[in-house]
Backbone:
């Protein structure tokens, strides 16, 4: 495939009538109407999920082009290109949308700035979550539409930064979709609409789960600094992943907030590191259980575990005054109902991109950033209840002096923070202070 | 110098002698009383409590098939590296092990005694390699021809009569949408369980096509049986969020499992229990 040729054909024209700054201030509504203009997309974070998100975005909609790639390290970038090349070789529609030239690939800690400056309309942010607040802030400042993977922060300071970016994006009319794909999944949408319409009466509470086996890990290779190892092995460091209750279980916690229509005001929790004791697993926990209390008095128990060989359970369950539901296609009680669809719905991870792109084209940009920021803080509140062993209130966690990234995020020598210890770990924490 | 006088015939005899030697170790002194393969045997995985049974199936001459689909109990030893000593890097057998799945390949439906599911054909084949290395016997996936012969024998025809199907198979109308523990419907005439329904089963074909046979718990009753055959398509792993997609797990393949096969060899002799 000759990508330069495609580039010449599809290059958008509207930015030529004004400066980038002007476009950023008064962006989109109408500019993409009727699909007459190509939406140029850049990807920041070229791991397996970022590569998959780029594929999902291009698959979702006509008139989108992937034009720029950025990653911290060259090997991840070239692996991403190899995968996308392979998809393009097998799929002509995809090939026509895949238009990344060598001069629009970037590596290093500033790769995201270069992607944002590469004449794009939308950026996919799929790095480890610890980088997300900074990347969101920069993308909004640059006036770009955004697809951001979940979670969107790992600490209180990060959530506050993301909420500020949300307000700015609203003022600019930017569209922001986030990777909580259940919000775009037909079974969930139909069921939760019914719950909101009263199908199980008043929601009293429920349980949400993500119990599974272990996940991949990387041992440190020769030539890697501590910083490089921690970022490549990012699941296992709270400053990068938020711990698995935030990184993974936020999906189910987000469903609880969606069903109840609020965020919790209080959390009590337990957690620990029972199996995950090897140094390769950094300092995070491998299990949490948290009781969330909502303003209505509803209570949701959250449970998550990542230990190989243990029973799997991923999903939700809600109890109301008139029935119960799994939130995803089944309601029992006074108005029993089961989801059915005459056609197979699109995969939710494709649908979420289709919805985002459609909202841009319709001039009615969706902005999911606040809802995921609040669900991210909910998960952080659960984590903090377990880490500290204290009862956590929403206000305390939202306002905490908690900013846990190392002061110098670089390929440098780095310690591993201590394993959090209930009774000793503090909510107000820094890089190496307040952990135990 | 030895090579100079050892004729081809001598080599062949030596090989035959090696093949005929007991495979269960030198400590096994039980007398060999019959030079025909046993109708069935149990295979125990050393160091575990897990065993499974292989059955010589009439109609598939010279081939043993697993009496049941491979269970999670057996697959976990391979997938979780339960047989790998603590601290060792990978198996001493140097066989690749499955990646850690993102999510729940068993869908939380049940684990102990349930058939393994959501596995790619590569994973099933790697499992067979591992099992062969662990047991010293050459386990593999059934060929499609072997599976078909066993299935037609089991069904007494190319179609499965409704009454028999109900007795033998977990299908959409009786499964409540999940897999069930292996061996909880009736055995067929050859003594095999779940050849039809429960999980559809990987087989190998000469052209390398990705085929599962028998139908599954989610197929309509009429669509399970000896003729049931599905070719893998993009829907089987369409919600895998990663690119590349997993080579070990099928994110949407809850209906895909397998049973193992093994050719009878001269070492397969009946031993006095």
Residues:
């Amino acid at each position: 495939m000759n990508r330069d040729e495609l580039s010449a054909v599809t290059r958008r024209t509207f930015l030529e009538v004004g400066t980038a700054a002007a476009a950023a201030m008064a962006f989109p509504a109408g500019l993409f109407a009727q699909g007459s203009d190509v939406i140029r997309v850049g990807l920041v974070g070229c791991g397996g999920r970022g590569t998959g998100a780029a594929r999902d975005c291009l698959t979702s909609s006509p008139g989108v082009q992937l034009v720029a790639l950025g990653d911290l390290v060259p090997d991840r970038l070239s692996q991403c290109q190899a995968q996308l090349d392979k998809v393009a070789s097998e799929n002509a529609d995809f090939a026509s949308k895949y238009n990344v030239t060598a001069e629009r690939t970037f590596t290093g800690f500033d790769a995201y700035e270069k992607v944002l400056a590469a004449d794009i309309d939308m950026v996919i942010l799929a790095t480890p979550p610890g980088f997300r607040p900074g990347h969101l802030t920069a993308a909004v400042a640059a006036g770009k539409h955004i697809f951001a993977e979940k979670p969107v922060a790992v600490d209180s300071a990060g959530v506050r930064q993301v909420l500020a970016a949300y307000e700015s994006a609203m003022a600019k009319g930017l569209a922001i979709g986030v990777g909580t794909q259940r919000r775009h999944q037909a079974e969930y949408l139909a069921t939760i609409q019914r719950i909101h319409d009263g199908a199980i009466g008043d929601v009293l509470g429920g349980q949400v789960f993500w119990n599974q086996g272990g996940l991949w890990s990387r041992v440190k290779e020769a030539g890697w600094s501590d910083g490089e190892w921690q970022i490549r092995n990012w699941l296992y460091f709270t400053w990068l992943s938020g711990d698995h209750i935030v990184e993974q279980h936020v999906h189910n916690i987000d469903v609880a907030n969606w069903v109840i229509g609020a965020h919790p005001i209080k959390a009590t929790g337990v957690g620990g590191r029972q199996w995950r004791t090897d140094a390769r697993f950094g300092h995070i926990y491998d299990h949490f259980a948290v009781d969330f209390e909502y303003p209505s008095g509803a209570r949701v128990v959250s449970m998550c575990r990542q230990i190989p060989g243990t029973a799997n359970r991923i999903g939700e369950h809600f109890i109301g005054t008139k029935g119960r539901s799994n939130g995803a296609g089944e309601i029992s009680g006074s108005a029993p109902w089961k989801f059915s669809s005459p056609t197979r719905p699109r995969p939710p991870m494709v649908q979420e991109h289709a919805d985002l792109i459609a909202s841009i084209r319709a001039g009615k940009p969706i902005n999911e950033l606040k809802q995921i920021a609040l669900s991210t803080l909910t998960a952080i509140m659960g984590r903090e209840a377990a880490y500290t062993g204290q009862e956590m209130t929403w206000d305390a966690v939202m306002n905490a002096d908690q900013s846990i990234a190392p002061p110098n995020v670089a390929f440098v020598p780095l310690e591993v923070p201590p394993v959090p210890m209930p009774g000793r770990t503090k909510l107000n924490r820094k890089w190496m202070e307040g952990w135990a | 110098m030895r090579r100079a006088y050892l004729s081809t015939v001598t080599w062949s005899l030596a090989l035959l002698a090696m093949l005929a030697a007991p495979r269960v170790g030198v400590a096994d002194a039980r007398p060999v009383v019959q030079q025909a393969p046993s109708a069935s045997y149990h295979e125990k995985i050393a160091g575990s409590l897990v065993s499974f049974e292989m059955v010589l199936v009439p109609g598939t001459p010279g081939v043993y098939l697993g009496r049941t689909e491979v269970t999670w109990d057996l697959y976990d030893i391979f997938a979780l590296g339960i047989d790998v000593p603590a601290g060792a890097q990978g198996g001493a057998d140097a066989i690749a092990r499955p990646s850690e799945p993102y999510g729940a390949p068993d869908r939380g439906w049940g684990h102990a005694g349930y058939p393994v599911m959501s596995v790619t054909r590569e994973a099933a084949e790697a499992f067979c390699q591992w099992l062969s290395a662990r047991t010293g016997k050459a386990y593999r996936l059934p060929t499609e021809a072997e599976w078909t012969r066993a299935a037609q024998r089991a069904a007494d025809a190319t179609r499965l009569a409704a009454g028999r199907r109900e007795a033998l198979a977990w299908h959409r109308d009786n499964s409540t949408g999940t897999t069930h523990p292996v061996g909880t419907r009736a055995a067929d005439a050859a003594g095999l369980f779940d050849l039809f329904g429960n999980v559809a089963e990987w087989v190998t074909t000469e052209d390398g096509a990705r085929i599962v046979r028998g139908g599954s718990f989610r197929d309509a009753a009429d669509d399970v049986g000896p003729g049931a055959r599905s070719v893998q398509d993009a829907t089987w792993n369409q919600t895998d969020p990663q690119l590349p997609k997993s080579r070990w797990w099928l994110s949407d393949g809850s209906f895909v499992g397998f049973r193992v096969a093994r050719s009878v060899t001269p070492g397969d002799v009946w031993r006095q229990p």
